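Q: Could you predict the 3D structure of Cytochrome P450 monooxygenase ABA1?
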Amino acid sequence: MGAAAVLYEARWFLAFVVLAIWVVLKIKQYYRLRHFKGPFGTGWFEIWHGFAYFSNNSHMKFKEATDRYGPIARIGPNELMTTSIELLAHINGARNRYTRTRWWYLVGRFQPNRDTIFSEVDEAIHTKRRAQMAGGYSGKENPDLESSVDIHVAELVQLIRTKYCSTETKINPFDLAKKTQYLAIDVISHIGFGEPFGDLLSDQDVNGYIEDVDKGTKALAYLLAFGLTELALGTPLMYLLGRSEKAKTGFGAMTANTRRIISKRLEDDPDMSKGTDMLASWFRHGLDKEQLVTESILQLMAGAETAATSMRSIMLYLLTHPRVYARLQAEVDAAVKDGRAAPYPSVVSNATQRQLPYLWACCKEGMRMHPPVTNSSQKKVPPEGDTVMVEGKTVYLPGGTNIGYCVWGLNRDQKIFGADADYYRPERWLNEEDPKKLAQMNQVHEMLFGYGKYQCLGKPIALMEIGKAIFELMRNFDWSVTNVAEPWKETNIGAVFRTDDFLVEATERSVS
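A: Sure. Here are the predicted structure tokens for Cytochrome P450 monooxygenase ABA1:
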């Protein structure tokens, strides 16, 4: 009897053995994290986790889990989600041995076999890359950074003034969500490449970049939901899935354009000794041409979406809270009147806008109520496991466990923000008398941009852009929401918000 025949005769026995091994492994996996409670079935299968991403509402699904099951909830066989600020600070601390989880962070890879600072899971390489790139995000090596932001904030104001202002005789609604995207993309492309895409001046999505990124984000959400990021983005299969640089529009065209700009820069100035932007700084600190391409694409995608979402959420809460709106506009007008803010058409300086307490209370509260991204930023527990303190209790985390950050839950935590944590009240940032509690609140705000050794390098730029834009929008126009019943249409795709039809009306104010 041949081997094939033997195997055929024993097929049911072999199937039973395989099934038995699978069951044993599943039971072992379940028992590793049996002390952590979560939604039904999460100890055995990834189904709940996957459906959370499919729901376009994953941020609320994760919050519901931590609300019900505590500061550490189980959301998968090897996945935990936490709202513990002390645990998150510990995980992201400079001296810990937690590492990034490959299955999550691979969504930041845009080219086969070439990681970005976001997708790189090797801690030594990641630390080195951060050091190489830090100077490009600071004003020290990019002296034109603030003036570049000012140019595009002024363009936004001018676009609204000349094309979209409403009057007593004509209402002219427009989508503020789109305009904030144009601003964010022009800012980040200008400071990154030395030349903007030109979305604001053309008042359109130049080359279809935004539309294509939306499609790509949806695809990434499916990969996360099915647990296929490793297969699709960590293997040669990515060569088949990648967008062609021969495309005339969208992500492929943007990649080709990025490569063209970088090639031209290197051809004209091989050492990039004349440049004063991010590209020049990164090149001088050791990034090669292909690394410049991938990191430039990353900062376009990450920097633009987070800043745009922050600006539109801050504006939504301002427009729907008249008391807060009036107080902020009074602070803005006072800064203009006493000369702290330069007269129109100048844009408020970063130094001035950072010293306006109510402006930043409104910005922080808007981002708290509606965080710009809700990615869980999962980290892997060191192989030997870790014992931590959570709300006064000792908790053991088995080695190899993935543990993520429940963004929505932490930012609505009543233990930190009070009984009215679900409501918009900027004064909480100004009136808190307990220094320890205020420090906790600010720590939660910092975590929106990553924390510790994983903090977003673009945070200072984002905050500068956000503060300047909100100030100038409030200085130059009076605002109202067009559709009070449904001010915008929004979905959470993977971890990034897509906002459409944020229709507003702006009427011109007399400015000085």
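Q: Anything worth pointing out?
A: The chain has one domain: 9-508.
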